[in-house]
Protein backbone atom coordinates (compact mmCIF):
# COMPACT_ATOMS: atom_id res chain seq x y z
CA UNK A 1 0.00 0.00 0.00
CA UNK A 2 1.48 3.36 -1.04
CA UNK A 3 1.87 5.93 1.68
CA UNK A 4 0.26 9.32 1.00
CA UNK A 5 2.57 12.25 1.69
CA UNK A 6 1.20 15.38 3.28
CA UNK A 7 1.58 18.64 1.36
CA UNK A 8 4.78 20.57 2.02
CA UNK A 9 5.18 24.34 1.94
CA UNK A 10 8.64 25.82 1.37
CA UNK A 11 9.40 29.51 1.91
CA UNK A 12 12.63 31.10 0.70
CA UNK A 13 13.23 34.72 1.65
CA UNK A 14 16.19 36.89 0.74
CA UNK A 15 16.99 40.60 0.84
CA UNK A 16 17.30 42.39 -2.48
CA UNK A 17 20.62 43.88 -1.30
CA UNK A 18 22.21 40.49 -0.60
CA UNK A 19 24.53 40.73 -3.61
CA UNK A 20 28.21 41.55 -4.17
CA UNK A 21 27.13 44.93 -5.54
CA UNK A 22 26.05 45.81 -1.98
CA UNK A 23 29.04 44.26 -0.17
CA UNK A 24 28.04 40.60 0.17
CA UNK A 25 30.58 37.93 -0.71
CA UNK A 26 28.05 35.95 -2.71
CA UNK A 27 24.94 36.73 -4.71
CA UNK A 28 22.30 35.33 -2.37
CA UNK A 29 19.47 36.58 -4.58
CA UNK A 30 20.73 34.52 -7.53
CA UNK A 31 21.46 31.59 -5.20
CA UNK A 32 17.94 31.69 -3.77
CA UNK A 33 16.43 31.76 -7.24
CA UNK A 34 18.61 28.82 -8.30
CA UNK A 35 17.60 26.85 -5.18
CA UNK A 36 13.91 27.56 -5.84
CA UNK A 37 14.29 26.38 -9.45
CA UNK A 38 15.98 23.15 -8.33
CA UNK A 39 13.27 22.43 -5.77
CA UNK A 40 10.51 23.06 -8.32
CA UNK A 41 12.26 20.89 -10.92
CA UNK A 42 12.51 17.96 -8.49
CA UNK A 43 9.21 18.55 -6.71
CA UNK A 44 6.01 16.70 -7.08
CA UNK A 45 2.58 18.19 -6.63
CA UNK A 46 2.92 17.91 -2.82
CA UNK A 47 5.32 20.88 -2.64
CA UNK A 48 4.26 24.51 -2.82
CA UNK A 49 7.13 26.99 -2.88
CA UNK A 50 7.21 30.74 -2.38
CA UNK A 51 10.32 32.80 -3.12
CA UNK A 52 10.16 36.30 -1.67
CA UNK A 53 12.83 38.90 -2.43
CA UNK A 54 12.48 41.60 0.23
CA UNK A 55 13.07 45.00 -1.39
CA UNK A 56 15.67 47.23 0.26
CA UNK A 57 16.75 44.58 2.79
CA UNK A 58 20.34 43.54 3.43
CA UNK A 59 21.60 40.37 5.08
CA UNK A 60 21.61 42.19 8.42
CA UNK A 61 18.06 43.54 8.11
CA UNK A 62 16.09 40.87 6.24
CA UNK A 63 15.66 38.41 9.11
CA UNK A 64 12.66 39.95 10.94
CA UNK A 65 10.62 40.18 7.74
CA UNK A 66 11.59 36.72 6.51
CA UNK A 67 10.92 35.14 9.90
CA UNK A 68 7.47 36.66 10.32
CA UNK A 69 6.29 36.26 6.73
CA UNK A 70 7.84 32.81 6.38
CA UNK A 71 6.22 31.43 9.52
CA UNK A 72 2.91 32.98 8.55
CA UNK A 73 3.10 31.52 5.05
CA UNK A 74 4.16 28.05 6.19
CA UNK A 75 1.81 27.71 9.18
CA UNK A 76 -1.00 30.03 8.18
CA UNK A 77 -4.07 29.30 6.16
CA UNK A 78 -3.12 28.66 2.51
CA UNK A 79 -4.17 31.58 0.30
Question: Could you state the order of secondary-structure elements as H and E?
Answer: EHEH
Helix content: 25-40%
Query: Strand order of the main beta sheet, please?
Result: 1-2
Q: What count of helical segments does DSSP give?
A: 2
How many angstroms separate the termini? 32 Å
- Count of domain modules: 1
Walkthrough of the structure:
There is one protein chain. The chain has two helices and two strands. It has 79 residues and is an alpha+beta fold. The protein has one domain. A two-stranded parallel sheet has the order 1-2. Strand 1, helix 1 and strand 2 form a beta-alpha-beta unit. The longest helix has 15 residues. The chain is flat. The protein starts with 7 loop residues before the first strand and ends with a helix.
Amino acid sequence: MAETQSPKRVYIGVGSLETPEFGEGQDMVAGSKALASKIIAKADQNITLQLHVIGGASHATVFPTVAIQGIDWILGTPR
